[in-house]
Amino acid sequence: MEVKESVQTGSVSPLVLQIVAPGDIVLDLSKAGKVVRLGGGLRQDGESVVVTRAGRLRHMQANNKYWVEGLQKRYVPSIEEGVIGVVADRRFESYSVDIGAPSNAILPILAFEGATRRNAPNLQPGAAVYARVVRAHRDVQPELSCMDVSNKSSGFGPLKNGYIFECSTGLARSLLSKPTCPVLEALGKRLSYEIAVGLNGRVWVNAQEPSTVVAVSNAILTSEFLTPGQQHIMVSKVLERMQ
Amino acid sequence: MINLEKPEQARSDGRTANQLRPMVCSRGLLERAHGSARWQQDNTIIMAAVYGPKPVSGKKENPERATLEVLWKTKSGIAGNTEKEAEVTIRRTLEYIVLSSMHPNTGISIVFQVVNDDGAILACAMNAACAALVDAGIPLNGLIVAVSVGVSTHGVVVVDPTKVEEKNFRAHVCLVFPNRPKCAVAGLPAPVGGEPAEHGIISCVTRGAMSVDEYMTCLERGRAASVKITSLIRNSLEHCQLLQVVGVEFGAVAGSPVPGEAFFAIAVLLGP
Amino acid sequence: MSAEEAPASASVVKDVVVSSMEVEAFRRLFPLQYIERYLDAAVRPDGRPLGRARPTDVVLGQVPTTDGSALVRLGNTTMLAGVKLELSVPSTETPDQGRIAIDFQMPPICSPHVRPGRPAEDACAINEQLSNVLASSQLVDLREFSITSGKSAWMAHLDIYCLNADGSLLDAALLASTAALMDVQIPAISINDEGKVQIINFREDQDEPMVDAEKVSETKRKVVDKRRLKLGPAPVAVTCMLYKNHLLADPTAEEEAVLHTVVIVVLDSPDNLISLYKPGGSVLATTSTVMDCIAVARLRLKEVHRILEEATKREGED
């Protein structure tokens, strides 16, 4: 198969929406004009932008942001992402939380809404939390917080009961896309369940009946490579089998 | 064996001197590994699994870059000096492409398992390692292409020798070149030393004695063969990644959907 | 010396001391820039031009308890190689050939980076490369080691010890192995009719071989005198470092640690390439770079062959 050579003529990369491999040069910064924002999978090499991860190149016109969408299991923390972590250890001032990143993250004991030294939540090793990444730099351990910017909890905090399973980061992102992901919508029509999705590839599901939990988790895992139509069909089959 | 009166005639498996064996690359096969790949060149099969970036302890920790570790598991028997040398060569080759400064204080391990060795095992391993690193999402600054070339006792240069051919040949070489990237900017990647960048050698391991001219011919043939392998690698990448675009182009994989795994194999029979 | 001159010379001395400390500090903190400064002037930190190897010394016959030995110094890198011959039975696949077993070791004495215990992976890699080079080159014909086809042959244990590791380990190890093999004297043996072989020991004060009294009456034995090995052309290895567009031959350990890209070329004649090993690195090798490395190797080949000849002559005179 011939590799089609498309050269950048305007200010936008001609490789947008194509599959790119590490080493591909996608943009000439000198021709780009306005400020270019680089997301995951891209880095700047002198006057050009080079791909570091394989995936599909995406571009958002609004803020001229480029990023590479790929399918990975390993999570690389970045700021302002909601993640699900499991407490591994308790230190004096903070918890050490495993979020599937290259090193464990730090969650300060007082990073919960309305927490003071006297009434902070006491999390045991093994407890699950839904938190927000506050600091993420390659040389430093990532830091989490269970509050949003205005110090309200808004959904962050410990997760009680339920079941956690792992999936790829790409699936986690698509579960959180707007409008609601077809699989979650279809399941929500017939079953009632609670779900929290961490961008680190972890999903927490809770429901009244264990069978509901199992059905929801299986449905989500199998929906990864299906079109919306197929997802609806798959969900209806799952629900039939439940009855 | 090659017919010496007419060197362009078939080898014992029917190929011509410049013909590669059919290659298959599959990725994402191992559930627990962060990235995995299986590279098959006819009967030579090797699997590579990548773990990382993960925390490491003690001496191995480097505050500026990630530490690469390579383990080679043979099909049978205990690992000896040959395997150690292969580990060192592969590790130094991969240090060329892995952007280890993006994950300091961590470690990346690559484990190889030889499933069957029918010649060109080191080249297979390099290709498998590259595919596994891409599957794991480790930041890379390019891809590599590895090819094995042999020189028969009568000086005929042959591409991709089998184990029998390697034993009977006077010498064989494993060459690793950088993969030619897709480039949206004219004039890049810049040529190095008067040649296109993908002609430069990242690694070279020879076994057996050959003349300097024969070595130069091996380089030429290796470069020509690497172009074909490059297009195979790009194809396999494109098809693997297409599957994850939810709801647009691809249907389910072979009937009932398989949870979590992106398994797609391409077999390309490459002509002379 | 008057009172005014004394402080002036003291401050000059102090300046010299301070600036040499600064140079050392710069060398430790910024090793790459330190070497780059020299490379821009086309020189190495130890004053050599880029393509020249360090002064090489080969002395044969240093270890009298072996059948052949050599001590090689390549700059500061020191290797001691010894060959001991043992009687053995040849394998059934190659009944008229002997064997060579190579063992390269880096004891902790050679470098602060080597710890006792598991051998460093560099040592294993060099071991493997040495066996490959000796197998691919025509230095030793294994049939030289055969005594009686199918029944007995010599097994040579070639042990190489690195006494000081300062870069270019394969070059020095290969040179030591070649020199030791050149020094090998296969002992005199007597073979009886049944093919049983006995090594004849020489008593120091006699020139006549000492023969066991009771065996004198046995049926006639064939005696093979002691002899040297007939060797082919000696393979010579050159380690080159590539950095940007510079090519450095025979690097020291400091240069090897900082400039990562290595190319090792082994030749045994100007046109016969025994091995070309380039394990990755940060610089690509273009065709012209490869040709430059081979040109450096050709020059070194002539140099080393001359050094080996002189060493053998010197040993013959002793």
TrEMBL record, chain A:
Q: Enumerate the spans annotated as K Homology domain.
A: 162-210
Annotated localization: Cytoplasm; Nucleus, Nucleolus
Give me any GO biological process, just one: rRNA processing
Give the superkingdom in one word.
Eukaryota
Q: Name one GO molecular function term.
A: RNA binding
The record, for InterPro entries, names:
Exosome_RNA_bind1/RRP40/RRP4, KH_dom_type_1, KH_dom_type_1_sf, NA-bd_OB-fold, RRP40_KH-I, Rrp40_N_euk, Rrp40_S1
Whether Flavoprotein counts among this entry's keywords is no
Main subcellular localization, coarse class?
Answer: cytoplasm
The record's listing under Gene3D superfamilies reads: 2.40.50.100, K Homology domain, type 1, Nucleic acid-binding proteins
Among the entry's GO cellular component annotations, what is one? nucleolus
Residue ranges occupied by any Exosome complex exonuclease Rrp40 N-terminal domain in the UniProt entry? 36-74
Keyword terms of this UniProt record: Cytoplasm, Exosome, Nucleus, RNA-binding, rRNA processing
PANTHER family in alphabetical order: EXOSOME COMPLEX COMPONENT RRP40, PNAS-3 RELATED
Please report which protein family the annotation says this sequence is part of.
Answer: Belongs to the RRP40 family.
- State the protein's name: Ribosomal RNA-processing protein 40
Source species taxonomy? Eukaryota, Viridiplantae, Streptophyta, Embryophyta, Marchantiophyta
TrEMBL record, chain B:
Cellular compartments per GO CC: exosome (RNase complex); nucleus
Question: Does the keyword section mention Nucleus?
Answer: yes
InterPro entries under this entry? ExoRNase_PH_dom1 (IPR001247), ExoRNase_PH_dom2_sf (IPR036345), PNPase/RNase_PH_dom_sf (IPR027408), Ribosomal_Su5_D2-typ_SF (IPR020568), RNase_PH (IPR050080)
Q: Give the superkingdom in one word.
A: Eukaryota
Q: Name one Pfam family in it.
A: RNase_PH
Q: Where is the Exoribonuclease phosphorolytic domain?
A: 19-139
- Read off the CDD domains from this record: RNase_PH_RRP46
Indicate the principal place this protein occupies in or around the cell: nucleus
Q: State where the protein is found.
A: Nucleus
Keyword check for Protease, yes or no.
Answer: no
GO biological process terms held by the UniProt record? rRNA processing
- Quote the Gene3D superfamilies the UniProt record gives: GHMP Kinase, N-terminal domain
Q: Which UniProt keywords apply?
A: Exosome, Nucleus, rRNA processing
Q: Family, per the entry?
A: Belongs to the RNase PH family.
What protein name is recorded for this chain?
Exoribonuclease phosphorolytic domain-containing protein
Supply the source organism's classification: Eukaryota, Viridiplantae, Streptophyta, Embryophyta, Marchantiophyta
UniProtKB/TrEMBL annotation, chain C:
- Which GO terms fall under molecular function for this chain's record? RNA binding
Q: Where is the Exoribonuclease phosphorolytic domain?
A: 53-187, 235-297
Q: Taking the first listed entry, what is the main subcellular location of this protein, grouped into a coarse class? A: cytoplasm
Q: Name one process (GO BP) from the record.
A: rRNA processing
Task: Cite a GO CC annotation.
Answer: nucleolus
Record localization: Cytoplasm; Nucleus, Nucleolus
Name the InterPro entries for this protein: ExoRNase_PH_dom1, ExoRNase_PH_dom2, ExoRNase_PH_dom2_sf, Exosome_comp_Rrp42_subfam, PNPase/RNase_PH_dom_sf, Ribosomal_Su5_D2-typ_SF, Rrp43
UniProt keyword annotation of rRNA processing present: yes
Tell me if tRNA-binding is a UniProt keyword of this record. Answer: no
What does the UniProt keyword field contain? Answer: Cytoplasm, Exosome, Nucleus, RNA-binding, rRNA processing
Pfam families named in the record: RNase_PH, RNase_PH_C
Q: Which family does it belong to?
A: Belongs to the RNase PH family.
Please give the name of this protein. Answer: Ribosomal RNA-processing protein 43
